[in-house]
Amino acid sequence: MPIKEQLKQSLIFAFWFMILTFPIMVIKVNTIHNTIVFRWANLLWVGVLSFFASWLWNYFLRRTEARKKSDVDEDVPLIHQLLQNNRFRRPFLGLLAAFFIAYPFVFPMYHTSIMISALVYVMLGLGLNIVVGLAGLLDLGYVAFYAVGAYAYALLNLHFGLSFWMVLPLSALLGTMFGILLGYPVLRLRGDYLAIVTLGFGEIIRIVLENWDEFSNGPRGISDIPAPTFFGHQFNQDNTMIYIYFIVIALVLMTIFFVNRLENSKIGRAWIALRDDEIACQAMGIDKFKTKLTAFALGATWAAMGGVIFAAKTSYINPMSFTIWESITILCVVVIGGMGSAVGVIAGALVLILLPEYLRAVAEYRMLVFGALQVIVMVFKPDGLIKSVRKVYTFKTSQEPQQEKIAHGTHT
Amino acid sequence: MEPILNVKNLTMKFGGLKALDDVSIAIEKGQIAALIGPNGAGKTTFFNCITGIYDPTGGEVQITPPGKNTQSLKGLKPNYVTERGVARTFQNIRLFHGMTVLENVMIGRHCRLSSGIIKAMLKPPSQREEEKKAVYDSYEILEKIGLDKYVNEMAVNLPYGAQRRLEIARALATEPFLLLLDEPAAGMNPQETKELDDLILWLRDNENLTILLIEHDMKLVMSLSDWIHVVDYGKKIAEGTPKEIKANPDVIKAYLGEESDDA
Amino acid sequence: MRWISILLGLAVTGIIGFFAVRELLMDPMYFFELFLGGLTRGSIYALIALGYTMVYGIIQLINFAHGEIYMIGAMTALIVATVLGMWGWNTAVIVILAFVFAIVYSCAYGFTVEKIAYKPLRNAPRLSALISAIGMSLFLQNYVMLAQTPDFLPFHSLIPDFQFWEPFAHIITSVEITIIITTVIVMILLGLLIKFTRIGKAMRATAQDKVMAALLGINVNNVISATFVVGSATAAIGGVLIACHVGQINFYIGFLAGLKAFIAAVLGGIGSIPGAVLGSLVLGISESFFTGYFWSEYEDVFAFTILVVILIFRPSGILGRHDAQKV
Predict the structure, then answer these.
(1) CB A340 within 8 A of CB A388
(2) Cα–Cα separations (whole angstroms), residue B125 to B21, B122, B128, B129, B139
(3) 3-state secondary structure (DSSP) of residue B215
(4) CATH no., domain A109-380
(5) Chain centroid to CA C57: how far?
(6) E strands present in B145-217
(7) Cα–Cα dist A45/A106, whole Å
(8) A25 has a chain C CB within 8 A of its CB
(9) What residue spans in chain A does CATH classification 1.10.3470 cover?
């Protein structure tokens, strides 16, 4: 398309968006104090920004379409290439490990606390990735299982004095159980109905927690949730944070380890097959319902464990921490990071959770940007920031497959 | 001896429409049988009814696997049909596009593997062995079908003919005794069709398979099949050897009638 | 199995019927109040549900951003009415202009949302389009929140208390009766549009079979745009009316209302226009009774429970997809 045409097109778009956003962007009314403010500068901003945005949009749209036609196989993402390269892999992982070990000792407590939240999101993201990324089930009520974990710890501790270490495995079981219980009736539904029904279940659990005072202490929540102990020893406040930090690191490593194994096992392949084509998947002898249920229940397991950590870290929980927006944030982590890609989800969680924490100026715009990113990623880069890479097997003629040379690095 | 597949009076209604009306077909062990008929005659519906994708409205579907007793497939879910040894391919290629060629075949191994979730997470030696064997077996199937050079490619990036062959490889991996091929030659060039012809014969002779295929390429059907069944408007109108079918006036009418409809 | 479900259905209807009659006899006034309240609520749901059901009928997508279109309609009306009110314009003119602007802007937003977030994904997996829709919903909510305010804004009702309605006002207010009547008129107009106009016929054809419609010379892209525009217009009307009824709005009102309307659309049989209306009325009235006689704090739980039950036992809704006209 000639540049003049492009200019004209972008101008038209800019004009359209200026009209479109006029009442909401320019006029600010306050019907309490009966004031009106006209913000003409905003009109200018909208015009200029939408001019460039539409130019970029059309440019990328054309490029995406050209690529679709040419059928070019996309390259393996850089990070995977590096991870597969043995000379790079060891030092890289070593550095990464050193960074994460040193982190709580180098940075002040505040940063450790934020990093813990981000790592909990890594766990939640990896869990949801099983459900959404691998099995292709859009679960908008994931936070319900997170709430189950958090409340399980708070309540079991309050009523029965169970410790963190007793509740952690228990909550995992509880999460699985709830996953099966909720999944059983709804997993027979078609994909888009499933999204709405899970959203509904998520909200139901929150509303019940808010209103059932005798059980959950209602909107006031539960406070004084004890931090985890180290063989009966209780650390002081700062050390507790560091201690929780390392527990989360351990759990994240465990999650990566197990999820990676699941992904490249019989069940993991069945999930991806189910996502790609349900009918063909069944024709290959895979039980559709059972496969969906395992994905749903396993996802719930990790959410519940994440919930226990969350409760232990904040020592106070109330239903407001478990709104639909929490589910959507976790979904954003998975979608923007790269559905089905563990590396992508980890990167996604760290970027999406840490950036707004440190750039206070943009924190306000967090959800706005998340929303826009979801649309942009789906339109231009459905694989997310770092797309998943399938395991590569090497063979020498028809002898034993050379399992040793398998690029294990892809998902660690 | 019992026929390997015995379909009796199969009927399938969609609302008021009878897509299949009282169709009976029997297939003997070791046969290459063809199911032909004009477009919309109900051929794919017939496959869908046998493989459990549709639950037939009436009739009976029985199989007699070699060395086993006769059993019914009617009303079983697709995955159980596959487990009992009836595998199929699809007319519109349905490969798993997010997976490599090898993994597509490994999916076919799914119902023959035993490791569950716990084993997948803990990876005990038995699971490692099984996984290794699954990789090996799948690769062997790819070699047989002649797709081993694509082993780590993403399935969607294969040439069209190779995608059709991969569908067959995937079906083979489920260890069937009866293979249902839905228009395996559709969209293939003459060279690819010739290779497919050889492959199907080879499968019957070396893998002890019985094969039922839907096909529009009459040259392929006539040269390959031992026995041909013809359906039109959901009803079976004829069956016999290729020679008999060629001479059957009903069949000619069905096909010519269709041609004049198209014109 | 069939007998069991029929018996179960009869038993449930019987129990509900028994309680309904008992309550009716005990306090008929309260009963009617709840019924009319439910009718009003259901009318609003219907105005929003139409957009869901029409869009779903044509492109099989749950348009998550639809609730936000409704919210933008209400917000635009509030802004226009406030500005004009401060300039001292005539009330009647303000009412008309507020409605006109709300409808025009909602349509423009609906149109733009489709072009940006859904059109490029028309051949993508359904999951992609759904995620894009959720992103759009999130974006629009936060856009309005940041550009305006996160707080509730009082909305001075555009609909006056009619003099002649005075004797009945204790049963049903002017606003409520306006809502019900407007909804009926909109439904009739929409019915005529779909039945008799060119674009209406094109919509029905496209909903039946997109490829065939395109082969017959229908511009499918235009039809899809038109569907979004029509759905947005009815949602905008609903938005302004509910704002008048409730008396305050903020950026978040679209989310729950949208969900409820979607539930209503599913309840009636998604893809079917009469279904959406029926489902909305059933949901509105039963919600009203539920909150009136049982627990008001579990209102949303009730709606979601209905959704789950419907989807599990009768996914095609009250007026199942096959027998109903779908657009």
Answers:
(1) yes
(2) 53, 9, 5, 6, 21
(3) coil
(4) 1.10.3470
(5) 15
(6) 178-182, 210-214
(7) 42
(8) yes
(9) 109-380
Contact in structure between C138 and A366 (CB atoms under 8 Å): no
Q: Alpha helix locations (H) across A22-136?
A: 40-70, 78-84, 86-106, 109-128
Q: Which of C292, C298, C297 is nearest to C34 (CA)?
A: C292
Are C62 and A188 a contacting pair at CB < 8 A? no
Does position A399 have pLDDT exceeding 80, yes or no? no
Q: What ipTM, to 2 d.p.?
A: 0.87
- The residue to which tokens 């492959």 are assigned: B199
Query: Where does the pLDDT of residue C109 fall: very low under 50, low under 70, confident under 90, or very high at 90 and above?
Result: very high
A113 vs A118, A164, A172, A309, CA distance in Å? 9, 18, 23, 12
Distance, CA of A205 to CA of A149 (rounded, Å): 12
What distance in Å separates the CA atoms of residue B224 and residue B214, rounded to the nearest whole number? 12
Residues 6+ apart with CB under 8 A from C291: C299, C302
Q: Which two tokens stand for residue C249?
A: 């709005």
Strands B32-36 and B210-214: parallel
Reference B76, options C173, C192, A283, C117; nearest CA is A283
- Both tokens of B181, joined, read 């091929």
Q: What is the pLDDT of residues C221-232, one digit of tens each?
A: 999 999 999 999
Instruction: Enter the pTM of the model.
Output: 0.86
Contact at CB, A373 and C141, closer than 8 angstroms? no
Owner of token pair 């994931």: A142
> Does A5 reach chain B within 8 Å, measured CB to CB?
no
Of B142, A72, A391, A195, give the one whose Cα is nearest residue C307: A195
The amino acid present at A307, given as its one-letter code, is G
- All residues at 6 or more sequence positions from B163 whose CB lies less than 8 Å from its CB, including other chains: B93, B95, B155
Both tokens of C292, joined, read: 């009136």
Query: Which strands sit side by side in the sheet containing B227-232, from one edge to the other?
Result: B86-88, B178-182, B210-214, B32-36, B227-232, B235-240
A84, A257, A265, A284, best to mutate vs chain B, most B CBs in 10 Å? A284
Q: Which of A129-143, A352-366, C120-134 has the highest mean pLDDT?
A: A129-143
Tell me the pLDDT tens digit for each residue of B43-89: 889 999 999 888 888 899 999 888 888 888 888 899 999 999 999 99
Question: Within an 8 Å CB–CB cutoff, is residue A281 touching chain B?
Answer: yes
Residues in CB range of B143: below 8 A, 6 or more apart: A398
Residue C104: alpha-carbon gap to chain centroid: 17
**In Å, how far are A196, C16, C172 from C32, measured between CA atoms?**
32, 16, 9
Closest-CA residue of A relative to C295 is A211
Q: Does A28 touch chain C (CB under 8 A)?
A: yes
CB proximity list for C118: less than 8 A, separation 6 or greater:
C59, C61, C63, C129, C132, C133
- Give the gap in angstroms from C-alpha A379 to the nearest C-alpha of chain C: 6
- The structural domains of chain C, ordered by start, are 30-313 (1.10.3470)
- Alpha carbon distance A229, A246 (integer Å): 13
